[in-house]
Specification:
By secondary structure, the chain is α/β, with parallel strands linked by helices. The protein has a single domain (2-221), classed as Vaccinia Virus protein VP39 (Rossmann fold, 3-Layer(aba) Sandwich), CATH 3.40.50. 28% of the residues lie in helices and 26% in strands. The chain contains eight helices and nine strands. It has helices spanning 2-11, 24-29, 50-57, 69-79, 111-114, 139-150, 176-183, 202-206; strands at residues 40-44, 61-66, 84-88, 91-96, 99-104, 124-128, 155-161, 187-196, 213-221. It has a nine-stranded mixed sheet with strand order 3-4-5-2-1-6-7-9-8, with helices on both faces. It starts with a helix and ends with a strand. The structure holds S-adenosylmethionine (SAM). Residues 2, 6, 17-18, 45-47, 49, 65-68, 71, 105-107, 128-130, 133 line the site of S-adenosylmethionine.
Length: 225
């Protein structure tokens, strides 16, 4: 089961996805979204990414959703801040200043959960290693959930492209046609960059993958009719 897989990864500290630096795609592209100071950025499946601390340092508010309690505890510990913890229907809610993390299953989260703490509306969804972390069968429901939680806020989305015959996910390859299937009815999709990152991806190199391309996307909400 999906939850057991991720809980086991955190329990055994198998965190190949966790980067020791702020993601360059985030740094390079965030300004182009034109967010106001204090804007709310939603990070689904956030882990303990260093991107959160960087976003807070830039003056934004951050809302995360993360299954693993270990991940959330380590996130706050590494940020060196003391959380206030209470409950929500799906787990525990951890808060400090501009940061709120809903620990639990993102599929249990509702847009209403986000309101009482003055978190909603969401101004930007930053999806790094979230959509691509989920197997194909879960991705349509995930995309629906992101649309519902954020009311189709703009997105900075990072995906990977590689030949699935060469290695099993996660991360799974997610091709442009699939992104369009999930999101084109609500967003205009714009490819921001693509780069073969095989050289810096040890797991993929060792598995014999021949091409491992990281693609950044801007998803801009379409005007509703
Ligand atoms: C590949 S990691 C990416 C973490 C983070 N975005 C990063 O860039 O480091 C995927 C994360 O999603 C979490 N996760 C998996 N399924 C989830 C779910 N249903 N609800 C909330 N979090 C989930 C896992 O525990 C894991 O930390």
């Amino acid at each position: 089961m999906q939850h057991d897989f991720w809980q086991a990864r955190w329990e055994s500290d198998q965190l190949g996805f966790h980067l020791a630096f702020v993601h360059p795609i985030l740094k390079r592209n965030l300004a182009s979204f034109g967010l106001q100071a204090g804007a709310r950025i939603f990070l689904p499946l956030c882990g303990k990414t260093l991107d959160i601390g960087w976003l807070l340092d830039q003056g934004y508010r951050v809302v995360g959703a993360e299954l693993s309690e270990i991940a959330v505890a380590q996130l706050f510990e590494e940020l060196k801040v003391e959380p206030v913890i209470d409950e929500w229907a799906g787990g525990r809610r951890w808060q400090h200043a501009g940061l709120t993390v809903y620990q639990g299953d993102i599929f249990q989260l509702t847009a209403q959960d986000l309101r009482p703490v003055e978190i909603g509306p969401i101004d930007l969804v930053y999806d790094r290693a979230a959509l691509v972390a989920l197997p194909p069968a879960m991705r349509p429901a995930y995309a629906e959930q992101i649309l519902a939680l954020s009311d189709a806020a703009p997105q900075l989305l990072i995906t990977f492209e590689y030949d699935p015959a060469e290695k099993d996910g996660p991360p799974f390859p997610v091709l442009p046609a699939e992104i369009a299937r999930h999101y084109a009815s609500r967003y205009t999709l714009e490819e921001l960059s693509r780069k073969d990152v095989l050289q810096s991806s040890l797991n993929f190199r060792e598995a014999g993958v021949t091409r491992f391309v990281e693609v950044a996307w801007r998803l801009s909400p379409k005007q509703s009719a």
